[in-house]
Write a structure and sequence with these properties.
Protein name: Membrane protein
Structural class: mainly alpha
Pfam family, one: VCA0040-like
Organism: Alkalibacillus filiformis
Order of helices and strands: HHHHHHHHHHHHHH
InterPro entries: VCA0040-like
Keywords: Membrane, Transmembrane, Transmembrane helix
Shape: globular
Radius of gyration: 18 Å
Length: about 280
Amino acid sequence: MKWGLLMIEWRNLYRGGLMGISDLIPGVSGGTIAVVLGIYQRLIEGINGIFTREWKRHLAFLVPLLVGVLLALFLLSNLVNWLYDHYPNQVQFSFLGLIVGIIPMLLKKSEYKKTFTGQHYALFILAAFLVGLTALFQEGVADTITTYDSSTYVLLFLSGWLASSAMILPGISGSMLLLIVGMYPTFVYILSDVVIEALIPLGLGIVFGLLIMSKIIKYFLNQYFYQTYALIIGLVFGSLFVVYPGFDDSFMLNALSILLIFVGIYAAYLLGKLEHQD
């Protein structure tokens, strides 16, 4: 198999960009965006296939996706954070619309009317409840770590592992978990200022987290497909309670928020239609 430019799925650049932007927003999951884009199972298979004989095919899928994620993280982190600082509710409502828009697609793919039993609905409720609980831990902002030693490197590695393990799961936000453990401000600082000595342990943790969690997810998708989908739908549904920011005091801002919900729903519809044409 030849390694060439034609093999690379260049469309994954914009897909990765959307996933990268979502990973900057606490409460929003890159895994959820992967589901919106219709590439979630291929993402899991690609990560698991890096060390197989078909590694070239999987890298052709993953490399542009990773480049898109990294470009979004490094080039757009300041813009996204500015929007999030000045219009936090409107940003959240945009993603809320995206998440609402994806739920019908997930239900259709799971064929829930034919396949779901009491067991599946119990898994759905449990997953939604557990994700919804994370909304209780959003308060408080930790100090940014700007000096580094051996203990800090270990903390960064573990934080990267935790964040990537979460971000590959639909509905569970890596940024939200970093916020809960007090590492989100440090994460944003490291990315926006490109702190190389901190990026290395953080990046290694992210890689290990993705490799291990993807193997776990692949196993459950292969062995318990519909149960896993019930969990995924529950995770996505539960994330609605985490992402929902409440309303502003301003009528105009609230009107904009409501408008952006419908924009997000329509964007999810268009993305789903575009991605499932192939």
